[in-house]
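input
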Amino acid sequence: MTVPRSAHGITALRWLVLAPHPDDETLGAGALIAQASAAGRLAGLVYLTDGSGSHGPVDGRTGPLVAVRRREAATALFRLTGSRRGSPFHLDWKDAAPVAPGTAAFDRAARRLAALCRRRRVDGLAVTALHEAHCDHAAAARLAYAVQACAKRRVLVAEYCVWSDAPETRSFRSTRTLPMLPGKRRHALQAHRSQLTAALGPGFRLPPERRRMSATDSLYMRRRP
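output
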């Protein structure tokens, strides 16, 4: 399996990006998505959860929020890639209530993504880092490694950070993407209006300091024991 050791080496792989929630794709993997798409090496974008945990239900319903966040996700992907040819894929796990490894639901999700990897000839799977504190971010990483184990093809898992610091370098190889235009990444993030403004009432707001994003993404590949 090719392990990218430089920004240009990243496009030797065909990438599937797994994001826990809509907005994580831009915050943690926006430059990877843009670079892979420009090179014709983006296999797709998968969202783990329905994003329903960022705000309270309206009249007891979360459906309207989920629909808004799906539209925002599609717009963000378009702004990163410049194309509407590939829609995001949604697993629709309940936000902040991840499925536990070893359960039938977890195994089904792993098999679905493994089949997607085979159909789309994926050999690089980017996912939020296993050591991130948010339960959905860690769950996404566990799912990615389960997919790697049952994909029936060689798939490299590369972790990216959204909320956490970089992992210990002794346990990982790392590389960076090519830089992307900061304005392009900001424009993609602005698609997630529900996470940035009071448009949907009280709820989560992305802190201002997190809206200042690097021009590159760092990817971390675990070293074999």
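quick obs: The chain has a mean pLDDT of 96.
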